[in-house]
Design a protein that fits this description.
By secondary structure, this protein is α/β, with parallel strands linked by helices. The chain contains 8 helices and 7 strands, in the order E-H-E-H-E-H-E-H-E-H-E-H-E-H-H.
Length: about 240
Amino acid sequence: MKRAVIVGATSGLGLEVARLLLERGWSIGVAGRRVEALEQLRAVAPDRVRVRAIDVTQSDAPDRLHALIDDLGGMDLYFHSSGIGRQNSDLDPSIELSTVRTNGEGFVRMVTAAYRYFRTQGRGHIAAITSVAGTRGMGAAAAYSATKRFQRTYLDALAQLAHREGLRLRITDIRPGFVRTALLNPEVRYPMLMEPAPVARRIVDAVERRRRVATIDRRYRALVLLWRLLPQCVWERMKI
């Protein structure tokens, strides 16, 4: 039976992905800061769900990850969904720095712990939710778009490192557009807004097919291509 650990499974896409993997026969270890939300998942299939409180910004998070892996009896897939982001045109330092701690420091802390585990095991799969926001720097969400670009580059580096080390380690970079989750401001109208359930299905399909990069969905693939083609002087004048 395939075994996955999902960090950031208390809500949003992480929770939806955990539910789908469970439906598809996986055994899962779920982690996040709010254990009560995770216990609802365990109630669905107590024999195939293990739960652990993990805060990715804390130094003990890797130890807690390894304890969860032990509870699960091993890990074939590490799925990273933990992340925060807010529009912050005022550049409130507390918001910017909190975003960097979670999406930067916390991301590195967890994916490197997973990489080291798979290095010892000799095989595995790391999948992480980044974002199309990592394509260009967005003035309304500077720290968010910058940390998502950082995550994408870090995954590129891990993929190269795995090849260099001869590891049977697959990396999947998942880049969704706007999804109706708690990350978004409910008072803002977002273009091409997607619902979590169908996005989660595309994510799980991409993971099970072991895709290297999955931009969700095709509208956002076209949009990202356009963004990349725009000259810097044009991009800087756009209200994004």
